[in-house]
Amino acid sequence: MVNNESEKREELHFIQLVLMFQSAALQQMGKIQNPLTQKIERDLEQARFSIDMLEMIQNRTKNNLSENEKKFLEHTLFELRMNFMDEMSKDKDKKMAGDSSPKEPEKQDENQP
Questions:
Q1: Domain limits at 57?
Q2: How far apart are CA 18 and CA 50, in angstroms?
Q3: What pLDDT is stored for residue 64 in this prediction?
């Protein structure tokens, strides 16, 4: 009985660990508000780091997770990767829009023909 309770507690702790990195990544992508600053902040390098940490956890715990833990981690990583790609494409779109925006014609002196 103790072993079963211990396993349940460890599974809960594992899920909480994944949720911590998920929340951090979502905050770093600017998807949710930072609870400390009450602001939307965006740092895609830090978001990539948080996702990388979850990938490392996935690799290091391979074949050592319950089915629930494994599915939760896979789903979380999938969702974070999709959100990260979305944010990267937004940056790319903004950059392309800035590069291809029509330039204002130069103003001519009214005295020149």
A1: 2-86
A2: 10
A3: 94
Average pLDDT rounded to a whole number, residues 21-45:
95
What pLDDT digit, counting tens, does each position of 43-87 carry? 999 999 999 999 999 999 999 999 999 999 999 999 999 999 999
Instruction: Note whether 17 and 57 are within 8 A (CB).
Output: yes
Number of domain units in the chain: 1
CATH number where 23 lies: 1.20.58
Can you tell me whether residue 2 is helix, strand or coil? helix
| C-alpha distance from residue 46 to each of 5, 59, 66, 67 (Å) | 35, 20, 29, 29
